[in-house]
Write a structure and sequence with these properties.
By secondary structure, this protein is an alpha/beta fold. It contains ten helices and 14 strands. The chain has a seven-stranded parallel sheet, sandwiched between helices. Strands 6, 8, 10, 12 and 14 form a five-stranded mixed sheet that branches. The protein has a two-stranded parallel sheet with strand order 9-13.
């Protein structure tokens, strides 16, 4: 049994990862400032309130628990906010990573799994995106994540800090047991927004552009169950435990759904109509983003257990109904 520090452990992906770690026999220590995460989502290990920019607090927590590894899920994730306030995005995602790496070196922690994003690729030049695709992010969020990745590469070469970088596509779903789920404020992800409409908390959903070169004119995205993302973090940690060297891995199911297909799936699962309105395209939205995740499967032995979109929506709807009010 090992202790693992999970930054952002009260967030959507961090909390599911803590549960997966506990089920695998680890002790997850959730470190979160609760600006985007939730105290109620920390159920499987100790909670430590702290900011990634508070280097003294990070050092104190490292000293208190002596973790053998770190899973880094904390950070700013809103693309629009990164454009209007890039300073906050870079400070949290880049300076925060520096503080974490300094604390790791101070306490002899040499393994880290980093939650990154397909946003590091920018506008894709191929439909199925592999890790060999050029990294040319088009917004501060993607650039900040790419800078954090480069820090890990440099710290590996200079100090021996080994890392696995997980670039996942669209996280979806919720804990099948209904214990935790997705709750952002503000909410920007498509599926929970659609569930809000089905639940009566919103009147309609906006579709940003219906004139793309896709089957029905709307954007195509690759949706991946949050529990499959959490499982990949645990497998990546085990890979590093066995001496694995640093690598970057895509996480996705390799199958894309248009926005209208997602709307139709939510209607089918909930049995409720979802009114939509077409709005202008958003700057920077790629027509198609689909993962080539073969490297994660060969490197980690990872295979998505919930690849079907309807299952992802069913799990999210179950949690949504239990934890929201109209």
């Amino acid at each position: 049994m090992s202790t693992v520090l999970v930054t952002g452990g009260g967030g959507f992906i961090g909390s599911h990862t803590c549960k997966a770690l506990a089920n695998a026999g680890h002790i997850p220590v959730a470190y979160d400032d609760l600006s985007g995460g939730h105290r109620w989502a920390v159920k499987w290990g100790p909670f430590e309130h702290g900011d990634m920019l508070d280097s003294d607090r990070l050092q104190t927590v490292m000293h208190r628990y002596g973790p053998s590894a770190v899973i880094h899920c904390a950070g700013k994730i809103l693309v629009g906010e990164s454009v209007t306030d890039p300073a906050t995005c870079y400070r949290n995602n880049v300076v925060g990573m520096m503080n974490l790496l300094d604390a790791m070196r101070e306490h002899g922690v040499e393994r880290i799994v980093f939650s990154s994003t397909c946003a590091v690729y920018g506008i894709p030049c191929e439909i199925s995106i592999a890790e060999s695709h050029p990294c040319e992010p088009i917004n501060p969020y993607g650039r900040s994540k790419r800078m954090a990745e480069q820090l890990l590469t440099d710290f590996h070469h200079a100090y021996g800090v080994r890392s696995v970088i997980l670039r996942y596509f669209n996280a979806a779903g919720a804990d099948p047991d209904g214990e935790i789920g997705e709750a952002h404020e503000p909410e920007t992800h498509l599926i929970p927004l659609l569930l809000d409409v089905a639940f009566g908390r919103r009147d309609r959903i906006s579709i940003f552009g219906d004139d793309y070169d896709t089957p029905d004119g709307t954007c195509v995205r690759d949706y991946l169950h949050v529990c499959d993302i959490a499982a990949a973090h645990v497998l990546a940690l085990e890979y590093l435990d066995l001496g694995g060297t640093g690598c970057s891995l895509n996480l996705g199911v390799g199958r894309g759904y248009t926005v209208r297909e997602v709307v139709e799936t939510v209607e089918a699962v909930t049995g409720r109509s979802i009114p939509t309105v077409v709005a202008e395209r958003r700057e920077g939205d790629a027509p198609v983003l689909v993962a080539n995740a073969r490297r994660a499967k060969t490197t980690l032995g990872w295979t998505p257990q919930f690849p079907d979109l309807a299952t992802q929506v069913e799990h999210a709807w179950k949690w949504h109904r239990a934890h929201h009010t109209p």
